[in-house]
Amino acid sequence: MEHSILIVEDDETLADNIRTYLERRHYEALVCNSAEEALEVLGTQRPDVLLTDRSLPGMSGLELVARVCASDPRIKPIMMTGYGNVEDAVAAMKAGAYHYLTKPVVLAELKLLIDKALEAQRLEHALSFYQAREARAAGLDALIGNSPAMRAMKATVRQLLEAESRMTDADLPVVLIEGETGTGKELIARALHFDGNRRGGPFVEVNCASIPPHLLEAELFGHERGAFTDAKERRVGLVEAADGGTLFLDEIGEIELPLQAKLLKLLEDRSIRRLGAVRERKVNLRIISATNCNLERMVQQGKFRRDLFFRLRVIEIKVPPLRARGEDVIALAAHYLALHGKRYGKPGLGFTAEARALLKSYSWPGNVRELRNMLEQTALLAPGNLIGPAQLAICPELMEGGDPRPALVRDFDPALPGEGLNLPEVERDMVLRTLDRTDWNVTKSARLLGLTRDMLRYRIEKLGLARPDRRH
């Protein structure tokens, strides 16, 4: 496809030379001798690049650039001038020019600038397309489920969004999203962003558990050149990258205490200081955090700052686990089965009544993430259109004997003896039996008990349990 260039130049010889050069390189070039004539052309045509002289009869090139940028930001203006001083360059950039070129014009340099402007235009168009697509798939309407627990959570989110739409300032309240692993906390954060006042800004997600603690500070706040051994260049942090939008801090409970103090300052002052810098920078962003940990207990244990905890939970949203969502399991399963079926070229997949009953009775310790991943394997290996219980790749450890409950729960006799039960001892015995069964694999044991890893670690510490030395 030919790209169109509008040339605005009162020197007819120079304008004709530029047009001939560009047309020979397969550009569509149109010449106007004044800014007023160019505005008439722009009323019916939309060129990709505007190439204009600064000094024109009547309206100046600077004013033309400013008006074009206001009416159609997609057009990339390039300014030409015979003066070539710093003041002209600054004025051109302030007016909205993409770049600046001094006379006499070197045609090869001009072509290079035009190519760069067209590439920047292409990237901006692609970015806006992906942002729009992400926004369509990330709003509150994208949250599947109509159970009482989901309706209550959606009502809370809508109430918050409505309150924010009436705010007179841009300082939106900090939100803490709590829920088990795999419940979809990120979707709630995206809904708050893409349905909220900052939908036009960036949405920057940081998984605090996936970045080593000694690197997390530099990732968040950036660094100056020479701030540490490998800091060969200045780098902007993710906090600055989220300026004007939303910063989503997932797994906030994994941040270590020294960095928690800096995060508290960000929340209080909306300012940061890059590593190795002496000057603070102001940022304008909304902060949403999420956790599957019990932050209150971590505060009591001295693992999380009390002041940061209360600053993070100005607004608190709890995401219900899948096992508490009733019929939502079937709706979600149908959605993911259709999604994976389309991906693998298997449209029309469905569940038998027995399979639906099994989906509803299973405890789903991995929540929606476990359901989605399980159904991908189911769709991929499905021999026909109808999915039965045997084709559901539910975790075998939780499905012994066809009972979706953990074996330890099935084997437990709830009948009370005459003298009653000692509940702490029952809990201690259950935890010990589970740890012994998994050879003290905390992740597997937590899954069997329906707990998070942090909750199980807390119980191990509270009960004073220690792994036995099997060498003797």
UniProtKB/TrEMBL annotation:
Keyword Hydrolase attributed: no
Origin superkingdom: Bacteria
GO terms of molecular function: ATP binding; sequence-specific DNA binding
Residue span(s) of domain Response regulatory: 4-118
Modified residues (4-aspartylphosphate): D53
Matches recorded under InterPro entries: AAA+_ATPase, AAA_lid_NorR, CheY-like_superfamily, Homeodomain-like_sf, HTH_Fis, P-loop_NTPase, Sig_transdc_resp-reg_receiver, Sigma_54_int
One Pfam family it belongs to: AAA_lid_14
Coiled coil spans: none
CDD domains: AAA
Keyword RNA-binding among UniProt keywords: no
Sigma-54 factor interaction domain: residues covered: 143-380
Keywords per UniProt: ATP-binding, DNA-binding, Nucleotide-binding, Phosphoprotein, Transcription, Transcription regulation
PROSITE patterns: RESPONSE_REGULATORY, SIGMA54_INTERACT_1, SIGMA54_INTERACT_2, SIGMA54_INTERACT_3, SIGMA54_INTERACT_4
GO biological process: phosphorelay signal transduction system; regulation of DNA-templated transcription
SMART domains: AAA, REC
Protein name in the entry: DNA-binding transcriptional response regulator, NtrC family, contains REC, AAA-type ATPase, and a Fis-type DNA-binding domains
